[in-house]
Automatic annotation (TrEMBL):
Species assigned in the record: Panicum virgatum
GO biological process: one example: cellulose microfibril organization
Coiled-coil annotated spans: none
Recorded family membership: Belongs to the COBRA family.
Keyword Ubl conjugation: no
Keywords recorded for this protein, A-Z: Glycoprotein, Signal
Record carries keyword Flavoprotein: no
GO cellular component, one term: plasma membrane
Designated name of the protein: COBRA-like protein
InterPro entries documented for this protein: COB_C (IPR056900), COBRA_pln (IPR006918)
Domain of life of the native organism: Eukaryota
COBRA C-terminal domain mapped to chain residues: 229-420
Signal sequence segment: 1-33
Length: 429
């Protein structure tokens, strides 16, 4: 719409307006879904119509997570859309609609859902086999291709009724929404593309979807409007002071301490009933009140190398963070030499010119799960060895510390740069 309007204006007023329009379009828009560390990241939803039925079609819907480091963790995705006509979902496999809605006009066979705007959620891993399809039933968790390519996509199948039985008659659903389960993603319009091609296991025969459309969803931290979920503390071998997470990084303890737990809670009160779990953290009482704390410790310094120990601690009694990942920015990351207990991939969001950002994740099965708080195993560690030139003093104010840290795609609260541990210049290491 905007471009059509824009073009009409341009033909009237010429180049000056063209420039103004271009500036307007490129101006940072607060609602724009964009992450400078993953500018092309998106989740693509592919909808393949596989066969016609007497009153509609059977489709396989697959969501691909094409984001570098943002996965969809527990309690998982919720995909919604609005039907264009009077469609109903006769049946589903590999997922379910959260509400049946008003099916009172049906006699005999009752649809799975008659909602005009159904919301679909994944099934749990222990779902009976006759309700599963390939790539389904992971409790709504979708990993990234970087970290776990086998689990970076999710599929379900649905049989749609009252939908039309030709490619012309089928109308695309509108207004796709992806929630995880909170906001954050914005989905574009469904666009009909080339029909998907499927190969048999031996690769000797190809079949084709009758019709395929795609929807692209992108994430914006701004839209998500989540309170911070992690914070960073800094320490070093050359200064005894640990710079802790800023006070109230993720919220403040209320005066009676009723919004957090002192010590280990009784499991009964800590863990919600399965159906009622909202993903709300239940945190240990700390000055920062974050569900997760990350400590960056400068451990050693040699002439040409220095070493960092990263410790991630879970203060949330309600969450095991499976397949956690960190994205860290540091100017010396172009010279990471060795890793201990960590997997690693450099992220070069600016096309390789600036190589200062990296993604780290745990080694299966040793530290890929950050166990719930209160558990002896509620923390994970790893180390990095970095090469520097012998002139670089790591103790110079702030140099050895990260500039930016994300946990599972969420920006972590950092101490203020003035507080970074340092040594007076004369004693620099
Ligand atoms: C989504 O990501 C994929 C993989 O990186 C890319 O090929 C595709 O162009 C992206 N889609 C959009 C609309 O940006
Ligand atoms: C699209 O979905 C949003 C959120 O579910 C809703 O507020 C809005 O009214 C919907 N628009 C249409 C045209 O259905
Ligand atoms: C804290 O406790 C006091 C006295 O017991 C009570 O009046 C007050 O409402 C409580 N505040 C909160 C935030 O729970
Ligand atoms: C975390 O994992 C442990 C071990 O598998 C399990 O006992 C515990 O219930 C899990 N906690 C949550 C909150 O899921
Ligand atoms: C970035 O630096 C790492 C070494 O830390 C190197 O392995 C990688 O190839 C570099 N990537 C680019 C695009 O320069
Ligand atoms: C990192 O390595 C490159 C090439 O190996 C070198 O040119 C550069 O100076 C190094 N950077 C630092 C900070 O040591
Ligand atoms: C350690 O770091 C703190 C915070 O930057 C600083 O105030 C203090 O002077 C440092 N200690 C020494 C011995 O340099």
């Amino acid at each position: 719409m905007a471009t059509a309007g824009g073009r009409r204006v341009i033909t009237c007023y010429g180049a000056a307006v063209l420039l103004a329009a271009a500036l307007l379009l490129s101006a940072p828009d607060a609602t724009e879904a964009y992450d400078s560390l993953d500018p092309n990241g998106n989740i693509t939803i592919k909808w393949d119509v596989m066969q016609w039925t007497p009153d509609g079609y059977v489709a396989v819907v697959t969501m691909y997570n094409y984001q570098q480091f943002r996965h969809i963790g527990a309690p998982g995705w919720q995909l919604g859309w609005t039907w264009a006509k009077e469609e109903v979902i006769w049946s589903m496999a590999g997922a379910q609609a959260t509400e049946q809605g008003d099916c009172s006009r049906f006699k005999g066979n009752i649809p799975h859902s008659c909602k005009k705007d159904p919301v679909v959620v994944d099934l749990l891993p222990d779902t009976p086999y006759n309700m599963q399809i390939a790539n389904c039933c992971k409790a709504g968790v979708i990993s990234t291709f970087t970290q776990d390519p086998a689990n970076a996509a999710a599929s379900f199948q649905l049989s749609v009724g009252l939908a039309g039985t030709t490619t012309k008659a089928v109308k695309l659903p509108r207004n796709f929404t992806l929630r995880t389960p909170g906001p954050g993603y914005t989905c574009g319009r469904a666009i009909v593309g080339k029909p998907s091609v499927f190969f048999t296991a031996d690769g000797r025969r190809a079949t084709r979807a009758f019709m395929t459309w795609k929807v692209t969803c992108t994430y914006s931290q701004f839209l998500a409007q989540k309170p911070p979920s992690c914070c960073v503390s800094l320490s070093s071998f050359y200064n005894d002071t640990t710079v802790s997470c800023p006070t109230c990084s993720c919220g403040c303890q209320n005066p009676n301490g009723t919004n957090c737990v002192k010590g280990s809670p009784h499991l009964g009160s800590a863990i919600d009933d399965p159906g009622k779990w909202t993903g709300q953290p239940l945190v240990e009482c700390t000055s920062h009140m974050c569900p997760v704390g990350i400590n960056w410790h400068v451990k050693q310094n040699h002439k040409d190398y220095w070493r960092v120990k990263i410790t991630i601690t879970n203060f949330n009694f309600r969450m095991n963070y499976t397949e956690w990942n960190l994205v860290v920015q540091h100017p010396n990351f172009d010279n990471i030499t060795q890793l201990f207990g960590l997997n690693y991939k450099p992220l070069t969001p600016y096309g390789g010119d600036i190589n200062d950002t990296a993604m780290f994740w745990g080694v299966k099965p040793y530290n890929d799960v950050l166990m719930q708080g209160g558990n002896k195993l509620g923390s994970v560690q790893g180390e990095l060895l970095l090469r520097k030139d012998s002139q670089t003093f790591i103790s110079e104010k702030g140099w050895a510390f990260p500039r930016r840290v994300y946990l599972n795609g969420d920006n972590c609260v950092m101490p203020s740069p003035e507080d970074y541990p340092s040594l007076p210049r004369m004693q620099a290491l």
